[in-house]
Every structure is written in C-alpha cells, then in structure tokens.
Amino acid sequence: MSVRVRMAPSPTGFLHIGGVRTFLFNWLFARQHDGECLLRIENTDTGREVAESVEQIKESLTWLGIDWDGEVAFQLDSAGRARELAQQLLAEGRAYEDEGAIRFRQPAGSVAWDDAVRGRIEFQNEHLPDLVIVRSDGRPTYNFASPVEDLIDGITHVIRGEDHVSNTPSQINILRALGAELPVYAHVPNINGADGRKLSKRHGAVSIDAFRSGGYLPSALFNFLALLGWSFDDKTTIMSRRELVDRFTLARVVSSPATFDYEKLDWLNGVYLRNLQPDEYAHFLLTWLSEQQIDWPRTTVDATVPLIQEKIERFSQYPDFVRFLFEPVTPPADLDPRICAAAREKLAELDPWEAVTIERALRELCEELGEKPRQAFAPIRLAITGSKVSPGLFESLELLGRDESLERLGAVVAGAASAAADA
RNA sequence: GGCCCAUUCGUCUAGUGGCCUAGGACACCGCCCUCUCACGGCGGCGGCACGGGUUCGAAUCCCGUAUGGGCCUCCA
Question: With a 7 Å cutoff on the CB, does A311 touch strand B?
Fold first, then answer.
C-alpha cells in the first residue's frame, strides 16, 4: 500500500507555525515512504481575500521547502458525495432526521484505534453524542465532511493535531458505518507559548512570513520545527532535510505538548548561518535585504560578509551592525579626542590602506601612548562606527576607506575643540 | 460537569524494569581566548509532579491524587 497524506491549511489568514509543524511531519512521512503529500484547500468561500491567502500559504510552504503532489478542494459547502453518503446512512438506519438536519446514530459498545503516535486509545460509544452530519440547510458538517473527504482522496495516514483526538472515535464510527477502510491515525502534540497556552502573537512570531522577514534561514527553521515533538536520538540536533526524511518516524513523535523556544531557534539559525559558504551567505543576505527593501551597494555588502558571518544569528541583526559603512554616524559628544587625534595622524600617511597595516599602525600607537589596546581602540571604534559594538576595527577601517576614516576621526577632534571653546 | 490526552533540568528532549549516583542541546553562571560584540574551548548550576502498589530491582508497569491541555456547536 502506498502512502498518501494531506496538509489542510485554513485559508483564513497566514500560515501558522504550529500548523506548519504538523504539515512538516506529514511531508517527512510521505517523502520517506515515497508516498504522496496532498495540499487540501478548503473552498468554503471563493472570495478574493481567500484566494490571496491561499497564494500566501503556498508561497510560505515553498519558501520553507515543503512541496506537494497535488491539490484537492475540501468542498465543505457543496459536497454532493457527502450528502449521498448521508442519505445512504439514513436509509440504512445508521442516521436519523432531526429538525431538518441529519444526525449520525452512534453504535453500541466501544471504539478504539492504535494511534501511530500515542498508542491505543479507546472510547465508550455511550459518551459520544449523535452528531449532526448534514445541517438543515443541506451543508455537511466538518466532522462528516472530513472523513468523507479523506475517503474520497484515498488518504492512508491522517496525521493531525492532538485537538482532533476527541473527534476521531466519531469519525471512525462513521467510516465503519460507511463500510470504509480506516486510515492510520497519528495525533501529534500541540505547540505552546512559554505560558503553556496555545502559541499566539503574544509570544512572538507565529507566521512563517514573520520568521522569513526576521532573517531566519528556511533550512534552520525546518530543522528546528522537526525537533519540536520529535527527536532522532539523545544527541543529534543539526540535521539536513535529507537526513530528516531518512530518519523521521511517527513512533518517535512524543505525545506531550512542546513549548516554542525562540532562543534555541536563534542559536540554531546562527549555526546554519555560520556554516554557509561566503557566496551562499551573500546570496541569502542579499535576498533578505531586497525583501526588506534595503538598497545598499552589492559590492560593499559582499565585502562585509567575512566581517559579520560569525557575529550574527539572524539577518535582521545585520543592518545595525554595518550601517556605519553606508550612513553617517554620530559618536557620543563627550568622546576623548586625544586618541582619535593621534590615530588620525598615525593613519594619515599609511600605505597601503589594509587591515593588516592598519592593525600594525594602531598597535604601535598603543605602545607609544602606553595604552592597552582594549582602552585605546574603544574611542576609535566609537568615532568610526558610532557604536561600542562593531565588526573588527581594522577591517572596518579598511572597508570605510582612508578618506572617510580620517574624516570621522577628525570630526571627533574638531567637535571636542569647539565644545572646549564654548565652555 | 462528562469523556479523552499529557506530566523527566527554566526550555527542547534521551530513557520502553537492572547500562541511570538520569545522558545531550538551548538558556543561565564562572574561567580561558580576545580590539568591542560574537565564535570557540573548559567547567558549573539544574529534573523523573505527588502518594500508594507490583517486583530482588521502577523515570520506566498498575491504581489514585494534583496540575495542564483538548473535545463535548446545525464551528473548523
């Protein structure tokens, strides 16, 4: 039997990270078993907003690296086949009419299934309500349409969130009454925020789009998501898509909910960023910058890569780090001008203007002044970058260029002089 | 309220009766490296929700309690 699963995003709004994790498990399972992964779009509404939302969802899935083998429509409003089956149940006495609606008659006894994640789960049928399967206006309800759609689509494994556990016994009873074969059910745990409640905007980014604009790498987010409720062993963290496909098993999905740890994601993204080849790094960075509509000269951006690759864990940290190369800076007004003046003099005739020669010159300066590098470089850094935190000082000076560097050093000296004159 | 599910360091998790004086990772703390910030290296802190069983032996099995979550809609 070949595997067929489905991903069923809600077309209202953007792709939620919790739902994506469920899709990810479906996708990994399908790919590992050489099966099919369908994208099921609910077509309750054909409005333009919904259409745009669906496009947005597809775009986000694609960005993350989750593809699909076909699209099916979940025809909640106009499911002819569902109504036929409901009539059949009615005729067979497995359902009955109730104020214009059709209710499914729960059988006697109990119902159980072997959940691929949680093991055997059993319900007493007497606790299950006779649920409405077709509303009085003729529209099938979700708990009827969903198993029927799975049946029509030939879904072999229903991998979904744990909030569906309670719906499963009724869906199984319906499928049995229809004489259908049952899919394998796998209920995966939810993802919560730090307060133990369902992950929402209050906790941080939740849409795939937000992570994208936050400067995360899709491969890192993919890796992180796979580790939320699943693990390969007791020590493996970094895994490529290929490795995840090879190693994923439903049996190793845990049954307790997980808390989304933004700090760990940041760390993992940093690991991925640091492992990138410089040209790959530049490519991803440039793409991100253009998505953010930041328009800095490409060659300069390229040149900054070796300076910042080790230092940032999200692209969103990049602009503040190198802004001094593209825009004027404003060092603190009370900066001690003496070292800047000495540095300016020392660097004025330096040749060639390269990081190594700049470093040699500035270290000589330290000795001449009897200052420790730590102390002496601080005001220079502030004058050049406007910040206490920056890429390497010598490389920064090289990239900024001699003219602009001397200019900035000189500005601090001149500023101090005019402040003294005022006083 | 009823039914169902869950409960190992702050967080993600390993653990399926002896390998556990419970392992790894993030975070945190300390030290080292060091021009800042990072990276990296070394070390540390820190957990089996609780109570009963079963067993020679339990984080692991059973029962109960507590806590959290889900479902109980002619919502999806």
Answer: yes
